């Protein structure tokens, strides 16, 4: 029998109405599984672990590193796959951090819901059923951490939450989903691309990596910024007001500064524009292009490399690997 462990972290999928109004986390992993029509018909041996029961905005990277350790132990102990249920607000970041630290072939599938349990059309049971289906499917092996949501199967590196309330909020705008759950089976349509895998950081001490979002006429980040690394969510294909270039060059002398795009899809360019504040100018000032990684995921990659003791060179190599290109020489 295939053994799948469901690890509950909380989120809307585990939320019910509170007496004072509004929803808050309440349900255990066991409650979630018993609310899934059709779960028994999967014929799985299900094990349950209540890891936490919190809204996902209150999760920290250290929680996810600890979860990654737990998942590794569960799989080493004989589980065939793991499903993680959590809040959707930070799901894309948690899934990507888990993916970066997952070096085993067994599937790990993250899901959640947009609607709380017990409301009309609650999507939690269907999403959990899809996640269990994917986690038990041999075709999911070797694909790292996947996200199952609204019957789509996404890679952790590409999926984004693109709507505040829609049950179809999760989208892989670059490349599309790698599969779907159809008629109760996981059907894969894409390979999913190269994955970066990093050593799990030993301690809980995680570096300070702010994310700064550029906007029309906005002030540049402070040259004295106290941080270990910085991600800039730039305009368009990696462009910034010209007055950001100097302060960022100074910051890039002290810490890795990563250039991502605040747009929904597509990569940061590396060789098209050459005006002050363009991607060529900024990369020439030692900013590291994020490739197809969106700003939040770029921050997770930077965090994970720095937490493993990586220097600027290792950061540049990791981003080049994530982008599927050779690491730039030099600095
Ligand atoms: N606020 C919730 C959370 O992320 C939203 C959700 O789960 O959909 O925990």
TrEMBL record:
<feature type="domain" description="L-asparaginase N-terminal">
    <location>
        <begin position="4"/>
        <end position="188"/>
    </location>
</feature>
<feature type="binding site">
    <location>
        <begin position="88"/>
        <end position="89"/>
    </location>
    <ligand>
        <name>substrate</name>
    </ligand>
</feature>
<protein>
    <submittedName>
        <fullName>L-asparaginase</fullName>
    </submittedName>
</protein>
<dbReference type="GO" id="GO:0004067">
    <property type="term" value="F:asparaginase activity"/>
</dbReference>
<dbReference type="InterPro" id="IPR037152">
    <property type="entry name" value="L-asparaginase_N_sf"/>
</dbReference>
<dbReference type="InterPro" id="IPR027474">
    <property type="entry name" value="L-asparaginase_N"/>
</dbReference>
<dbReference type="InterPro" id="IPR027473">
    <property type="entry name" value="L-asparaginase_C"/>
</dbReference>
<dbReference type="InterPro" id="IPR006034">
    <property type="entry name" value="Asparaginase/glutaminase-like"/>
</dbReference>
<feature type="domain" description="Asparaginase/glutaminase C-terminal">
    <location>
        <begin position="226"/>
        <end position="319"/>
    </location>
</feature>
<keyword id="KW-0378">Hydrolase</keyword>
<feature type="active site" description="O-isoaspartyl threonine intermediate">
    <location>
        <position position="12"/>
    </location>
</feature>
<dbReference type="InterPro" id="IPR004550">
    <property type="entry name" value="AsnASE_II"/>
</dbReference>
<comment type="similarity">
    <text>Belongs to the asparaginase 1 family.</text>
</comment>
<dbReference type="InterPro" id="IPR036152">
    <property type="entry name" value="Asp/glu_Ase-like_sf"/>
</dbReference>
<feature type="binding site">
    <location>
        <position position="56"/>
    </location>
    <ligand>
        <name>substrate</name>
    </ligand>
</feature>
<dbReference type="Pfam" id="PF00710">
    <property type="entry name" value="Asparaginase"/>
</dbReference>
<dbReference type="Pfam" id="PF17763">
    <property type="entry name" value="Asparaginase_C"/>
</dbReference>
<dbReference type="InterPro" id="IPR040919">
    <property type="entry name" value="Asparaginase_C"/>
</dbReference>
<dbReference type="GO" id="GO:0006528">
    <property type="term" value="P:asparagine metabolic process"/>
</dbReference>
